[in-house]
């Protein structure tokens, strides 16, 4: 693995990787936080502080939560159940195909790992044609 792919992920990487995906638009979410969309469907967004994501000791709401869409509940479970990843969920997101990550925890991921999560988020929300075209351009098939 090259050093760029293995280095720690940053919040700037989230923006750069999401924006590098094809057909992406950015819309302003509430309070001006960016929402990355493909075909008017969000795949990554920066969340405002909410009561469901707060410090368990102080009750202070997290102000650095990023939401990433996933393909399925199984994909969600594999990310949040893996003790080696910083992904989590809250009851607010029960039944929603997404995982949460705090910006402060991004360094627990490598650039490559973050890239895969964002690419998978994009694939989960892109049209079948766009997804197939992107996979084909990378020498992959939808089953890989």
Relevant terms:
144 residues, globular, five-stranded antiparallel β-sheet, 5 helices, alpha+beta, single chain, Aspartate Aminotransferase, domain 1
How does the SSE layout of this entry go?
Elements: H1 3-6, H2 11-20, E1 24-28, E2 34-38, E3 41-46, E4 65-69, H3 73-81, E5 98-102, H4 111-125, H5 128-137
Antiparallel strand pairs: 1-2, 2-3, 3-4, 4-5
Helix pairs in contact: 2-4
Concise structural overview:
The chain is α+β, with helices and mostly antiparallel strands and 144 residues long.
What does this structure look like?
With 144 residues, the chain is an alpha+beta fold. It has a single domain (3-129), classed as Aspartate Aminotransferase, domain 1, CATH 3.90.1150. The chain has 5 helices and 5 strands; from the N terminus they run ααββββαβαα. A 5-stranded antiparallel β-sheet has the order 1-2-3-4-5. α2 (11-20) crosses α4. The radius of gyration is 15 Å and the shape is globular. The two termini are 20 Å apart. The model has no long low-confidence stretch (mean pLDDT 93).
